[in-house]
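Target chain:
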Amino acid sequence: MPSMNLGRVYNLDMSLYPSFTYPFYSRIDGWYVRIIGEYRGLRFKLEKPNVLRFEDAPVGFEYIVLEFTGLWFDPYSYVSKLSSSRISRIWPLIEAYDGVGLAVDPYSRLWLFASITLSRHTDFHLNTVRWVRKLAETIGDLRMLTTDNSRMVSRSFHLSQLPMQIRFYMERIEPLEDKIDPSILRVKLQEGPWIGPKTATSYLLFSRKDATYMASSDVHFQRISRRIGLIDWRIPWSSHMCRRYLCSDCPLRSECLHWIARVEYGGLAGWIQTVAYIQDKLLCNRRLCNECKVRSMCTERLSP
């Protein structure tokens, strides 16, 4: 049974928890077993905090396991590219989430696109995960999804809109994958129905390895970036401007959270946004200040 000595302690659970690939796995006897998308049947688990065991990965393609688990991404490798002032701002967050990677899936992009579009205006772990898994069980092939059979999953507006979004992706986006710059693809994605800058950015971050500079300006990133003083921004994004301009050409870029994060933190920006989700959802929303490792930076911490 193959295994990898990671050379560091890794937090597999927290690396998968914020990823839009999370619905693609079922937990069985401590294993994460892949049940959706390419490479179904592949499984992995931490045998020790620094040893990963895996099964059913194609021989010679162990890098797929690194991508699926998030191990391919090491936030420390990006720190040396930052200014000293930015390092001092980000270092407590990096230490707090030491061992958290960035779990991506470049091989099941249609399923990933569905997972992200179904996450709009709802609880991801409560609803989206359930919808994605039920789609896999009842429909199987997303290319066969229709307005009628989508009701077998849910009557939520998310499912009624999904067939049109899937058709848009197949006709307009899929032919462009890996052929144009992610920044251009971000604008193209927003030509689709009910697809805004957050959806487009999230899709690019988790569907490839060359867009880690993209941070979706969701409510969690907005809260944490201000709460611990990471970024000074005025607007999270502008839907109108995001549809018209590349970020580098946008007249509002100097005020925009997405662009400033990209400029100030480079390839680390997407990881920062990802751990901001963990921080806000699992600690801040529950007011668990006493358990928070970045409490000293927080402007809203509760008194002990």
Remarks:
- The CA atoms of residues 190 and 196 lie 5 Å apart.
